[in-house]
Amino acid sequence: MNDSTKKEPLTMSRPNKLELTKTVESGKVKQNFQHGRSKTVTVEVRKTRTFTSNDGGRMVELKKSGASVQEQAEKSLFGKTAAVDEDAHLTEGERQARMRALEHAKNRPAEELQNRQMPPPASSQMVYDKKPLKEIVFEEDATPKTRTDAKLNIVKPINKPAAKAGPAADIESDEVRVERADAKQPSKMKLRRGDEVRRNSGKITVSKALSMSEERVRSLASVRRQREKARRAELGIGAGPQEKIVREVVIPEAITVQELANRMAERAVDVVKILMKMGTMVTVNQSIDADTAELIVTEFGHKLKRVTEGDVENVLKDESGQDDPASLEPRAPVVTIMGHVDHGKTSLLDALRKTDVVAGEAGGITQHIGAYQVTMQDESKITFLDTPGHEAFTAMRARGAKVTDIVVLVVAADDGIMAQTKEAISHAKAAQVPIIVAINKIDKQGADQSRVKTELMSYELVPEEFGGDVIVVPVSAKTGEGLDKLQEAILLQAEVLELKANPNRSAAGAVVEARIDKGRGVIATLLVQKGTLKVGDIIVAGASYGRVRHITDDKGRSIETAGPSLPVEILGLAHAPEAGDEFDVVDSEKTARDITEYRAQRNRTAQTLLATKSLDSLFAASAGTKAKELPVIIKSDVQGSAEALSQSVQKFSGDEVTVRVLHSGVGAITESDITLAHATGALIIGFNVRATAQARDMAARDKVNIRYYSIIYDVVEDIKAALSGMLSPTLKENFLGYAEIREVFNLSKAGKIAGCMVTEGLVKRGAKVRLLRDNVVIHNGTLKTLRRFKDDVKEVSHGMECGMAFENYEDIRVGDMIEAYEIEEVARTV
Q: What is the pTM of this model?
């Protein structure tokens, strides 16, 4: 193979890289947006390669040049024939017109660029000479062949007549249309203030923001204000002095300075100045009281309205206003039976109701308020409230006296007036209700009615037979004697009182009792005093509210409505209210929620104040003499019993020991109660309730003490015993005797031994002794050794000799006297 036939080796365009020539050109373009935002975009330009066949039938690529690809293709295919055929049908004039149009189309971009760079004509420029905007005058163009626009001062050309028809006319009309389009576009005008470019002359970009100078630019708000000021000046608005607006300012119990200034629409600085003049140095964020705020509002000339947090309850006061006398109807009297414990109150009510109520009571005593309505033979009705007679239920008797119309005071003929009888008389007098005395147990031996009547006179209760106004009826609940006379006396007193109520209004009354049932929830016993209670009403009872879901009367029958003087049980309250709370029916749930939230906050504040330590307790704690506490948790079946238990156990509190009720509620003992008792070491008292299965397991695991009771006597006695055991015992000194030192023996091992003669009483081993020298106590200690001859003895009696030695003391002399005594600890009780 020679050199001419030798082929060159194949190579690559780049080292070690085989590639094809790219037909796509790529690049990056940066786009700018408003507020300085930008974005870089990759742009690809594809090359278009066009091929065609030549005369020899080979495919050749057409190169892009000044002529279009289509022209090159026509030339390659048809050669000059295409051009000859194209111009064959044109005349010489048409061909020249076409050439002029093409020439004009080529020169148009250059003309447009030149027109943009040229300054606008003097007639379209607007000069701002620092005058108000309404005084800006535009110069008019004096050219006679143009007319000016009144608003923008844009020069518009005069319409020319249309050209003749034909190709040349078409080209001329195109030229005229181009010139007219250019003339119609108004030149961009710049509104200047002096030499400053206005801010609204165009949108700002990043390049403009970077290239802008530090000169202050007039804002759009200032332009608007100037225009508004000019408009108001033209209309004559605000020419005179502005009149002060007097506002009604609502002042709560406490308000900050800033909030007060906002409500008066005054500056906070001016309010602070007024306060400084008054001698009060405050900041805008500090609170002031209502009296100070009232002075400030008066100083600024505004009207004020004082409000308090308790104003949410005003809606209840408005609804409970005076009723129209024409709408009142007679109602049944509410009678409360009161008296001492075991005087037969429940037995008397049982005889009236012909039911056995006492059989279901633990210990034979009433421990919660019972509400019943009895229908007499003449169809008249009486509502009875049976209150407990035990001393622990003082609050219950007070509540019973508040909601009652007549009080029946039951006194046992064989027992007379006792402690709770006196208390019941005081409650009835405080409630200003009439009293009817029922002397019970007249059939019992030893009954003395005259003694009871005499004792009543000492409490300003004068019977009618003695010239007074108190009705006294002897009765016997066991035999039924005198019951008809008692009913007649109650109805007679009710007629005198003229008891009436309006049933056609929203219900209102009092809560007699409340408890929690495991299956049904909160059950509240209510006594309707006004209006009619219906199923579906929204009621507020103390710090609890809810919608009435079910109503049951005292006999267990379901009813839809409950009128005045009717005791009922309802379901639907969210929480168990306190016994004695008032209940009212409200219009909306929002009103009920606002009232209960305010009452709950008020109760929390009261508890916080009660829990605050006094100075005496703080000093006692710092001195190390803090009182010992017995924490207890009380769970009862009804709210009244829980309240009575809390008051009973807390009355034993003293300076050294005190009872702290951590929680008091109704319902079964739950896991939360066990957790609280375990954390605080409290004792759980269950009164007529039991613990759940889970609570019992937790109590056994955590060793929490749970005690169950059904009689309140047992609760009081156990708490009293527990507190007594917590008291420190009393130390009592008992004198034993005297002994005289006759001789002092000094032994090497035992030290000094006193040889004594017991002159009075006796001396015991281990007793406390005092060493007297010339009748002055020089040592007080303990006897270490007591011997008679060589034997240790327990005691030495009068007239016998013995040897004594003291603990850690040997300064003894002949003639000293030894006084022996012992300390006895005596248990204390509360």
A: 0.51
